[in-house]
Every structure is written in C-alpha cells, then in structure tokens.
Specification:
Elements: E1 7-13, E2 21-28, E3 40-44, E4 48-52, E5 61-71, E6 74-76, E7 79-80, E8 84-85, E9 94-99, E10 107-112, E11 120-128, E12 132-143, E13 158-160, E14 180-183, E15 188-191
Length: 199
C-alpha cells in the first residue's frame, strides 16, 4: 500500500521549552508510483543550516547538501540547474558550488561569507531522467551573538582574618583588636599579629 507520508521532521530544542531551536533534521519517505507508472522523488540530505554569526554578520563557514533522486525505489542520477537566491545576498555573500553533477552522488557546497547578514533561501532545480524537474528549497539562517552584558564587580584580592591560639584548658579567646590581612595573590599575611594570640 502506498503511504501518504512524504517527510518526517525532527526538531531539537534547548532544554526547558520550545523557544530556542538548536537543530532540525528532515527525513523524506520514498514511495512507489501507481501500477505501471513509477514515481519520481528528490531528497536533500540537508534542507536547512544555521551559520554562526557575530553581532551583525556571519563568521563564515560552509555546509554540504547531498542531492538524491529516485525513480520508484531505485536511486538515479540527479542534474542541478541554475540555483537562485531569495535575496541579493546570492551569490555575492552566500554561494553554492555543485560537484559530481548528473550522477547519483551529486553534492552542493553552500558557503557563507563574513558579510552575510540576513536569513534566506536557495531554490535548487533538480531534474530526473531529463524531463522531471523539482524545485527544492534550502533554507539558511544566522545565529547572532548577544550584546555583551555589564561587567561584574571586581573580585576581592585581600581579606581581614583573625587568628587565635590557646591552651586546651583555656577559655575561648576574645576577638582580637589588631588588623591582619591575607593576600590571595601570594598567600601572605601582613599586619600586627601580637594581639592575635592568647595563651
């Protein structure tokens, strides 16, 4: 029986809710055609990608897309035509390089430059058997860094400490009246320590 299911989409979110999307993976389902009529299907192994960015534009980077074509359940060659972009960033700020075109291992490498500053899509025309063309969509986005927060308070370099010394049978020593300072950077004590000892 032919299934009506065409894709399975899995989304990974940051723990605690559904507001921060970390990754998305789509798995396509290939079906046989009706009796006597083979179906044609195209699968992109990577249909979307998020590029790391600074506060205003991409840091740069690339990702690969495998382009798979099927006639029924049999893999066949895929031919990539002219790729177009959804905005003027393509191809000056984001580019797509096709390798092994018109084979069963067709691959597209999408590269983002450091001047890319907005999300967008690429339309990829894929032709099977010379006459069946599918316009596939690849989406890309940028993960911008947040603005720096305010500086925290400086850590303490010194601390005032009190040292006591008494015999086992003596009463508890009272609070010393002198000043003794411990320096965290070198582990030294400075100040007058005579009043800190009570025998």
């Amino acid at each position: 029986m032919k299934s009506s299911l065409t894709d399975l989409k899995c989304e990974l979110y940051q723990s605690g809710g559904f507001s921060v999307l970390l990754d998305t993976q789509t798995v396509s389902v290939v079906n046989d055609g009706e009796d006597g009529e083979p179906s044609y299907n195209v699968v992109l192994t990577n249909s979307n990608h998020t590029f790391p960015a600074g506060t205003s534009s991409a840091i740069g980077g690339n990702t690969s897309i495998g382009v798979l074509g099927y006639k029924g359940a049999t893999q066949i060659d895929t031919y990539i035509g002219t790729i177009t972009g959804s905005n003027s960033d393509y191809p000056s700020k984001i580019s797509a390089q096709v390798s092994n075109n018109d084979t069963t291992s067709t691959t597209i490498t999408v590269t983002a430059s450091s001047t890319l500053s907005q999300d967008g899509t690429l339309t990829i025309p894929v032709t099977l058997d010379g006459s069946h063309t599918f316009n596939m969509t690849f989406s890309y986005s940028l993960a911008f860094q947040g603005t720096p927060g305010t500086a925290g308070e400086s850590g303490k370099n010194v601390a005032t400490v009190y040292l006591y010394k008494r015999a086992d049978s003596a009463a508890d020593a009272g609070l010393p009246t002198g000043t003794l300072t411990y320096h965290f950077n070198d582990g030294t004590l400075t100040g007058t320590d005579a009043s800190y000892f009570n025998d």
